[in-house]
Design brief:
Length: 196
Amino acid sequence: MCESNDTERIIIPPTKAWEIVSQADKAYLRECPCRVLAQNCPRDTWEVCLLFESASQEELQGARPISTAEALSILETAADRRAIHNLFYTHHGQKVTEICSCCTCCCRPLRRIKAEGNYSAQLRSEYVAVTDPALCTDCGSCEESCFFEARWIKDGTLQLITEQCFGCGRCMESCPEGAIRLEREAGHGIEIPACV
């Protein structure tokens, strides 16, 4: 997905992606251009970009219509692979156009942002991951899963940089103790547009 002047992008948790797809009237599927180019992921995972009626004809090129059940299956597989869901929408009209289930090994924008280290300047979300200290054992699983380097273990204790957490849910899925939950945080990011 190439962002135009009228396109915004935010990171959403898997549950929000599921909700949006469930409410969409029509869904389309196409190959992820980043995966096609990098070829780091298995060939059968390249078709992962979900588009909706509000997408432009240019964006829909090469996409095929799929059922809601198929679209939800795509999301489920992506979640199992700990994808980061990027939601694209038009700045004018707040119309959802696409959900990209981005892998960390192929996604050019995410890898570029990580190399530059300026996450908060380029990424937004309405969610942040919150850890329950009573349940956390400081095992480090969330540190290993956090692409945005928001979590790390220092002197045996979990540390968190809230500004670098975008509520993608990878840490929550990896936590063996169920100590992490996603919460909306006012002022942390921007409100997710209304579902299609």
